[in-house]
Design a protein that fits this description.
The structure holds 2 protein chains of 2 kinds. By secondary structure, chain A is α+β, with helices and mostly antiparallel strands. Chain A has 3 domains: 23-103, Methane Monooxygenase Hydroxylase, Chain G, domain 1, CATH 1.20.58; 127-240, no CATH class; 308-559, MetI-like fold. In chain A, 51% of the residues lie in helices and 11% in strands. Chain B is an all-alpha fold. Chain B has a domain at 79-254: MetI-like (MetI-like fold, Orthogonal Bundle), CATH 1.10.3720.10. In chain B, α2 packs across α13, α3 (78-109) runs parallel beside α6 (156-164) and α8 (184-192) runs antiparallel to α9. Classes of the chains: A alpha+beta, B mainly alpha. The interface between A and B is large, with 113 and 111 residues.
């Protein structure tokens, strides 16, 4: 790339000059903008801290601080131009990288998906109906503004005390309710309320289980819900099920059981009933389960140990690891040779229609890869696809290759698709490289009696590899993480063993995806992040190799 | 001209043509390999029987029924997917070009402490594609969405935010190289006339670097349009999904029966990108852009 070296030092004095000529209006606008950003960031960071998301809050704070420094100090003037790009880079690339590193050492997975603060909040909001709870007869009201918002008018069944109007988040004694134009009927229930419509009981039956029984009416202190044992008639005053002790244990007020957080999961440790093994049980003698949700905590090297020590995981992982390399290597290998072959065919001077032929051969490369893979998935369908139909017809077989269900054929299928997708790119870059080769050395080689093959083997190929070598390594790195092809063709399948998420065509990145987001097995973000770290390490090694053994790093450094 | 040399020349011409025809046979085989899948789905898209099983190369009953079903039947909101893809890719491309151009201008024109390290950092960071941190990215967007709903999971705002993480990256390098080739005399004379940095950037540099803005915009558009891993992870609702996610779900549901409709969708989805790439093919050869789209 052409780079004109700018005159050194030319702009170093400019910022200050610029500032002095800046109008007051611009300065004020800048400060107002900064204040708005700060206000938003402060609000956001505070909410994150409240939710226990400390690392993200720290990043938001650092980014905001950086923006402020750039815009408040004249010496940092050039950095103002980088604030949008850098802020996004730090938030969307650097933070996820650091967080991946952290999560890899935690048990962030199904059952432990929350931060400690969030888990405690969820648990402390749970309620139960005590044996001696106060019960009420209820009448439903629906908000006139929001048809999904319900409230109850509650009249004590024992006749003691005052009626209560309870909506989600708030409960008000009847005497403080403004009835507006409405009156109380003979049962003491208002015919309507300002902003609310009274719903006759008959109309609430249909939504009794699906809606009304699920709503917590009233605030934290006064929680009312329909009585699960008698929902049509009664509502009850519920109380908080759990209380947090000072030592961090959780006390279940309903069962009288104490739970201690073990690796972020509240596990029963003491209670009124125990069985012979010392487990805490309920009144019937059944061991009590742990409480969900739990929160995620650092668990040291356990994820890495699982990867290395657990044979059920290690075996499939090693297969996936090796196939990741093999897949990338063979993809580059076959696309390069096929592309080079076509480039040589078209590189002869006398080739009428060369430009058209080249453009036509580029079409597979121009198709979006996700579409091509899906098309090939149809062509390679084992029973109905055109390829297997042709194979069975022509060869008279009963069935064609099992492209998606056999451990070997699925790999052949993926490489076939890769060949189709990738050869035009290789043709493109080798054509470019061939055209830049010096012609005179071939003259010399011919004089020395070198055959066409010798010329190719000892002149063309070595010179070609110098030019396209870095591109081949880059292509290797790209295909090392080619999620699109592997995931869309067969989701990494077929499975290596029925109880493991790894499949025969899985590469590391699709394996990671399956661990984190695969259906039916439950998310394991911690272990998935561990695999991500392995990929990181590999990509770093490949890149280092690329820089070390080619001149590209020197080129890059010069271009700075 | 003697008869001998005439014969020799004639033989050379004949050999040249024989050689060409021989190569043409091999090239024809390659063309068959390249076009067979495309011709096959083009045929399927006009095949009224519409299933994988019954398709013939020359349809027994042809028509546009598949296209009609693709665009009008409510089961698969193809139009919505296409629109989502174009919308997300366009906004991402526009913002990427903007952010990248501002940064590239500063890299090209200012000399300041940390400049070299910043440029090298940007280069190194982009070596690691953000698909590697997909788990953490998913969790990040989930968390952001709890507080700012339009940037959360299942929103285009959140998706674009993730794509923009790479805005300051290889594109910036590409642009910076181009900016460097604009003579600084232009800046200097404008500065003597009292123009600010911003004015120089906006009124003098930008009009001159339009080609590279277009290239970066197109690269970003194509890359975003073709993304699978991030959109697949973030978008859950059928009506929010982009073409890459939607089309996949389409055939996973009912591959055989929907084959004709899928083929029609595949063609419509591919054509804009194929035209873009073939038109701008020379930009895709450049060493710096390799891998930015695919390789």
């Amino acid at each position: 790339m052409a780079t004109a070296k700018p005159a050194p030092g030319a702009s170093s004095r400019l910022p200050a000059a610029l500032f002095s000529s800046q109008s007051l209006l611009v300065t004020i606008l800048r400060l107002v903008g900064l204040a708005l950003i700060d206000a938003f960031a402060l609000w956001f960071a505070a909410r994150l801290v409240n939710g226990g998301e400390y690392i993200l809050a720290l990043f938001i704070a650092v980014i905001t601080l950086g923006i402020n420094v750039a815009f408040l100090f004249e010496g940092m003037y050039p950095y103002r131009w980088f604030t949008p790009g850098l802020a996004l880079l730090i938030l969307m690339i650097i933070y996820p990288t650091i967080f991946t590193l952290y999560v890899a050492f935690t048990n962030y997975k199904d059952g432990n998906l929350l931060t400690r603060v969030q888990a405690e909040e969820v648990l402390l909001s749970r309620t139960f109906l005590p044996e001696d709870a106060k019960t009420y007869g209820w009448t439903a009201f629906r908000s006139l503004e929001d048809a999904n918002r319900w409230a109850l008018w509650l009249i004590p069944t024992d006749g003691q005390g005052e009626a209560v109007f309870a909506e989600p988040g708030d409960a008000t004694p009847a005497s403080e309710i403004d009835l507006g134009d409405n009156t109380l009927d003979e049962d003491g229930i208002p015919t309507g309320l300002p902003g609310w419509e009274r719903i006759p009981f008959a109309k609430t039956i249909a939504i009794l289980d699906s809606v009304l029984s699920k709503i917590q009416f009233g605030g934290d202190e006064n929680t009312f819900m329909l009585n699960p044992k008698n929902p049509t008639k009664q509502a009850g005053r519920f109380e908080a099920k759990y209380a947090l002790n000072d030592d961090g244990t959780l006390y279940d007020r309903e069962l009288g059981v104490t739970y201690r957080a073990v690796r972020g999961t509240y596990t029963p440790v003491a209670g009124p009933n125990k069985n012979a093994q010392g487990q805490v049980t309920d009144a019937e003698g059944q061991p009590l389960p742990v409480i969900r949700p739990g929160y995620y905590v650092p668990i040291g090297l356990d994820n890495f140990k699982r990867l290395i020590e657990n044979e059920k995981i290690r075996g499939p992982f090693i297969r996936v690891f090796l196939w990741t390399f093999a897949h990338a290597f063979f993809t580059v290998f076959i696309t390069f040779w096929f592309g080079l072959f076509l480039a040589l065919l078209l590189n002869v001077k006398f080739t009428p229609g060369r430009a058209v032929l080249r453009t036509l051969l580029l079409v597979p490369y121009a198709m979006p890869a996700f579409i091509s893979v899906l098309v090939w998935k149809g062509l390679l369908n084992e029973q109905l696809g055109v390829i297997n139909k042709a194979i069975t017809d022509v060869l008279g077989l009963d069935a064609g290759p099992r492209w998606t269900s056999s451990a070997g054929w699925v790999k052949v299928a993926i490489l076939l698709i890769q060949l189709w997708l990738g050869f035009p790119y290789m043709m493109l870059i080798t054509t470019g490289a061939l055209q830049s080769l010096p012609g005179d050395i071939y003259e010399a080689a011919r004089v020395d009696g070198a055959s066409a093959f010798q010329q190719f083997r000892h002149l063309t190929l070595p010179m070609l590899l110098v030019t396209v070598g870095p591109l081949l390594i880059a292509s290797f790195a790209f295909n090392f993480n080619n999620f699109t092809i592997v995931e869309l063709f067969n989701k990494g399948g077929p499975p290596i063993s029925p109880d493991q998420p790894a499949g025969h065509s899985d590469i590391l990145i699709t394996y990671t995806y399956e661990l984190a987001f695969g259906s039916g097995r439950g998310a394991d973000y911690g272990f998935a992040s561990t695999i991500s770290l392995v990929i990181f390490l590999m990509v770093a090694l490949i890149t280092f190799f690329n820089f070390r053994f080619t001149q590209s790093w020197e080129e890059i450094s010069e271009n700075v | 001209m003697s008869s001998l040399s005439y014969v020799m020349q004639n033989k050379m011409v004949r050999d040249r043509w024989l050689n060409y025809l021989g190569r043409l046979v091999l090239i024809a085989l390659a063309l068959f390999f390249a076009f067979f899948p495309i011709v096959w789905i083009a045929s399927a898209s006009f095949d009224e029987t519409g299933t994988l099983n019954t398709q013939r190369l020359i349809p027994r009953a042809s028509g546009v029924g598949n296209y009609d079903r693709l665009l009008t039947s409510g089961i698969h909101p193809f139009g919505t997917w296409m629109w989502n893809s174009i919308k997300v890719a366009s906004i991402t491309a526009l913002l990427t070009v903007t952010i990248s151009a501002i940064s590239a201008y500063a890299f090209s024109r200012f000399r300041f402490r940390g400049r070299r390290n910043l440029m090298l950092t940007v280069f190194i960071v982009q070596v690691f594609p953000n698909s590697l941190t997909i788990v953490a990215t998913f969790l990040l967007i989930q968390t952001i969405g709890r507080h700012v709903s339009w940037l959360g999971l299942n929103t285009h705002g959140g998706l674009i935010l993730v794509y923009l993480g790479a805005a300051l990256g290889i594109n910036t390098w590409l642009m910076k190289g181009f900016f460097d080739s604009i003579p600084r005399d232009l800046d200097e004379s404008a500065r003597i006339d009292g123009a600010s940095d911003w004015l120089i950037f906006w009124r003098i540099i930008l009009p001159l670097v339009q080609p590279v803005l277009a290239v970066v915009g197109i690269l970003s558009f194509i890359g975003t349009y073709g993304d699978v891993i991030i959109s697949l992870t973030l978008l859950k609702d059928k009506d929010m999904q982009t073409l890459a996610v939607g089309l996949n779900r389409f055939i996973s549901d009912n591959f055989n029966r929907e084959w004709g409709v899928f083929s029609a969708g595949a063609l419509i989805g591919a054509i804009p990108i194929v035209i873009l790439i073939l038109t701008f093919q020379r930009f895709f050869v450049s060493g710096l852009t390799e891998g930015a789209v695919k390789g």
